[in-house]
Structure formats: structure tokens, C-alpha cells
Design brief:
By secondary structure, the protein is of the alpha+beta class. It has one domain: GMP Synthetase, Chain A, domain 3, CATH 3.30.300. Helix content is 41%, strand content 18%. A four-stranded mixed β-sheet has the order 3-2-1-4. Strand 1 and strand 2 form a beta hairpin.
Length: 79
Amino acid sequence: MSFSEDQIEAVRAAFDLAGYSGELRTLPVESDQDRVFIVPPASEIAMGDERSLELVLSRLLDCEVLVTGDVGAPTVPFR
């Protein structure tokens, strides 16, 4: 699934509002129905309520979204 520029900008804005302005990285995409964003562990505390961010991102991208810390797997830039 590819996202529009508007969706990408909206996702970046949602992360900014949640307190995270670093590079957006995801696990490699295996399905158009889900997306897993990986953020550094220190950022998770600053973001506060990840569940609310996941709900907003799910609506923006029309898929299930999980925001989590490093899971030890390779990541790719969000595009």
C-alpha cells in the first residue's frame, strides 16, 4: 500500500503532536492491513499515550497501527 503525500504529512504531524519528531521507521510491510512504527525507547515516555496515537494513525492510514519500541528487527523508512 502506498500512501499519499497528504497522509504522510498527517502522520508526521500526529507524531509531532505526540512529542516525537524523529525519523519515522516501520517494520517491513507484510500486509496492507497493518503498519508497525518503531520509535526509540526514550521517545515512548515522551509520547505518553501511544494508544491514542495508534487510533489516530489507524484512521489516517486506513489500517491497523501499532507504535512500539525497538523489537530487534530490521526497519525501513516510512513512506
